[in-house]
Amino acid sequence: MLKRKFIILFATTFSGVFLNNFAEATVLKNSHKEVIDHVWQIVYRDFLDASGKFDKSNWIELRKKFLSRTYLDSDEAYDAIRDLLSNLGDSYTRFLDPREFNQMRIDTSGELTGVGIQIVKDKESDDLIIISPIEDTPAYNAGIKAKDKILSIDDISTEGISLEDAVKLIRGKRGTKVKLEILRGSASFFKVLLREKIEIKSVASKVNKTKKGFLIGYVRIKQFNANASRETRDAIKDLEIKKVAGYVLDLRSNPGGLLESSIDISRQLIDKGIIVSTLSKDGLKETKRAKGQAITKKPLVVLVNEGSASASEIVSGAIKDNKRGKLVGKKTFGKGLVQSMRTLVDGSGLTVTVAKYLTPNGTDINKSGIVPDIEVRMNINPILQREIGTRKDRQYKVAERELINIIERENQMSQFNPDTTNINAFLKIHKKNKVFSLN
Predict the structure, then answer these.
(1) Which member of 261, 335, 340, 393 is catalytic?
(2) What residues contact 127, with CB distance under 8 A and at least 6 apart?
(3) Average pLDDT, stretch 144-165?
């Protein structure tokens, strides 16, 4: 069985440094080298190499190289750590100084200070790429989109810049502004964003009434933070009381978050079956399953797009592979790696890739994403925020239509009585609707 730390994205703390002998411990104690070696040891023990480029013998040589240097202050040591980690070729394994580490803890707790984007540094192209803007944040309201590339920050080029330095430039005091140069396709443009402290409500829900009179429960999960599972549970229970006929779950532009949150939310919707499997660097596999405690079993359609990443892909993959519902929208981002967040000896932190996850069918979606059952482009012209999840929202409109079809087919099935129904007429109707096949 995997240890618990392998199945959480951001919850594990790590203490202690693995040293070869007591003399070495004395040399490293209370020095900047202790932090460097702490990072080295964690990577050596737990890092999952998704690219296939990690060489342990080279990693051992790098340890000798970096510990042979003299570091005058923590900044020099931190730069060395970032340099060390650059040898891994993994965008998601990164070092955070104490201020950045504390901010990440705040982010996953449901509060955020900044402009509301999550970014990654592509190791192959060296591009600084936006995973997704978070809804109701300055970046989202300014029209920033998933997979936009950041060319400059306050007129400072991002070419060759580290992810950590980019984050430092983007974040700042509340009420101050930051100018981003964005590349979308072949066109570049500038956006000036006001930094804000944002209280993130993870889940929004409402009842939509269709033209045919069906009540549809619409649930939008914006981020899988520490509050998302509870908020989703409360939303579904409320919609069940309101007697909705089915659900549209909106995971569009949801960049992910806590793995445990995505598993719990999946269990609220899926009664039986595998939710996700995690595979460690040692080939140890742990499988998470539904517990037979789904809050609802009513028809379900899930909305996804290019900004649906990580934890969003766990939920959508579980629903698709278990045939619990249909996916509508565009192919997801493709982030199938699990990071564990570790506290280092001086209060700084490390997010290290420790596992990859597989959908119930065993699919590794890293970089490839999940293809929806029904592919639909978003509106050509941007819609207003209040129009998201309405029939003015093209993707939602298709999702609602598909959900109605499912509801109507299920209603027809439930009304069938073999003693009174014309069997030939019944089979003709359902053959057309492709409800089932005969063996």
Answers:
(1) 335
(2) 121, 149
(3) 92
